[in-house]
């Protein structure tokens, strides 16, 4: 069982920065990938950024060059640094822990979500 607790959301002006943090507790392994997803009103939840336990990262095209995901194994956190924020980044952001078996997804754990609002 894995528990995820997000923090760091809020209101920021366009062009500004925010840092989200996800505290991870419970048992993880190399078969896990950690990530951040977001869901805007009326839209489906979408991937923002992921990292494997070996620090291989992946980003949505819409955030490449602006967002950075960081896995800290010592402090058991997964942070998302968001720079040059745009109004279209407004969404509820969710921390995710995904368990794989081979290429198949066995299970997803989710945090409760944190609101990010970017004003024009």
Whole-angstrom Rg? 14 Å
Q: Give the H and E element order.
A: EEEEEEEEEEE
SS strand fraction: over 45%
Number of helices: 0
Provide structural commentary.
- Helices cover 0% and strands 61% of the residues.
- A hairpin with a 4-residue loop joins β7 (67-72) and β8 (77-82).
- The chain is globular.
- Strands 2, 4, 5, 6, 9, 10 and 11 form a seven-stranded mixed sheet that branches.
- With 120 residues, the chain is mostly beta strands.
- The protein contains no helices and eleven strands.
- It starts with a strand and ends with a strand.
Summed up:
This protein is an all-beta fold and 120 residues long. The protein has no helices and eleven strands.
């Amino acid at each position: 069982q894995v528990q995820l607790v997000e923090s760091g959301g809020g209101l920021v002006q366009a062009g500004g920065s925010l840092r989200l943090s996800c505290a991870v507790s419970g048992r993880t392994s190399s078969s896990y990938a950690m990530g951040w997803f977001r869901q805007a009103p009326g839209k489906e939840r979408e991937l923002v950024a992921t990292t494997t336990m070996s620090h291989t990262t992946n980003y949505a095209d819409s955030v490449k060059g602006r967002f950075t995901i960081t896995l800290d194994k010592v402090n058991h956190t997964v942070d998302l640094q968001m720079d040059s924020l745009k109004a279209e980044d407004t969404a509820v952001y969710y921390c995710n822990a995904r368990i794989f078996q081979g290429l198949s997804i066995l299970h997803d754990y989710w945090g409760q979500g944190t609101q990010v609002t970017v004003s024009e």
